[in-house]
Amino acid sequence: MKHKLIASVPAIVLGALIAVAPQTFAHACQGHGTPGACHYSQQAATGIGAAILVLGVIALFVDPRVRIGLNVAVIVDTVLLLAVPTVLIGICKGTMMHCRMVMLPTLVVLGVLALAFAVIGIRVDSRAASASAGGAR
Amino acid sequence: MTSIVITARTLPLENLRRRPMRTAALLVVVAVLAVAFFGGSMLGINLGNGMRSMERRLGADLMVVPQNTESKAEALLTDGSPSTFYFTKEIAHRIERADGIAQASEQTYIASLAAACCAEKLQIIGYDPATDFVIEPWIASQFDGALEDGQMIAGANVNVSADGTIELYGRAWPVVAQLAVTGTSLDNSVFINQDTVPDMVEASASASRRVMPAEYADKAVSTVMIKVKDGYEPQTVADSIKSIDPSLGRLGYVYPGGVTAAAKTALGTLVGYVVVFVAALWAMGVIVLLAVFAASANERKREFASLRIMGATRGMLYGVIARESAIVGLAGGVIGVAAASLVLFPFSALIGSRLELPYLQAGPLVVIGVAAASLVLSTFAGTFASLVAMRGLARPEAYLTLRQGE
Which residue ranges traverse the bilayer (chain B) (predicted)? Predict the structure, then answer.
């Protein structure tokens, strides 16, 4: 049970934050005449956050080996999340723009945390999986 | 069933692994101490850098500005928002006739449009390269040519497009140089020569709202920057200006030295609070570490007595304890420094703007130095607390310790 929570709850919490933050306090710059890059990064981040959240919820109901796979998917999603505002889509260039001052750092912090917890989850589940495999032998 | 061979070298790590809750609690305490030390130190260093950067760029002893605009002018020197204010060149020329003035130079400030997105509100600063003694000295390190009409020099935060221009009032203005970060509002400014100011005013009129009436475009002056002669005080020169004409007494007089002193006081207060907070947290943290190690020393008497019976010397026991706590200290320190870095560096622009004080991020060498100091201190705190708490553990006779509680 403990391992299950360690390997799934962080993805649920951080996925929810990644989905909600760009639509609330860490929003893109407002008042675009036409939507700018930061707007599309914001929307993409929300989608990726929702996917991480769903992976975390599924992880609550599966065995450790499947959870390892789900956490690998969380890592891939998180790398995508970090790439969206920095490489793939981008944000406004101005250093003092809200998207650069608040949205980008928030996504980076949440992304790094999601990445770190996914690695911890994989490690915890790998041990549990190998221990149960050793016990079965 | 798998068997694990435990040697004297692997014993500390196994001890930590077998008591996950105790290890996690110790890691949290040490990580909090490292966050406080690293975060507090970096904040103080960055604010100090910003203050020194601001001081280097305040070349004038006195600024004469229009009536009731002193606070706007002071904000321009520290970390304020862009603004437009002006009087006429005729007033500026009368000011410059006062006694005690070594150098005087006129500047014109225009706030660009408060664009909703992607084109920031900039402070446009028009200066006279022929008389300037404030901006040129530090611009010279990055741009040694003559600033032609229509050209711009951009502050560090200004978004210059790939073709080397800035879009302002619907026109693309060529940028000849971009300055290094200063940590002050000058980073969000663009510099033009005074002859370009009328062009800028006309551009504003054709693009949106005229920033000043057309008749003022070629004679607007926002401030007269004054360097006083040796032996004169800025206040004396201000009195001398006021004595020329009573109407000049109604103008605003800003003393950049006083602004720096006020900013220094605010900085000193903030850094003082941070130091007290970090010191209090460290005192509490070390007490908590002592308490945790003391409690675990009590419960581990039998473990250590058993080790003594198996032939471990006192030195070996102290070595095990020291290595256990050093591992906790180092790991907690790394977690703490990483956690603080995760907030400090990505959010540095936000921190600077919220503090409303000059904030200049330190270079990588300083950051590495402070991080290393944080790790050393965390490791030392953990090792010190554990050795103090467990100093009596290896001392008594092993057999008697083992019999205790029977």
Answer: 24-47, 270-295, 316-345, 365-389
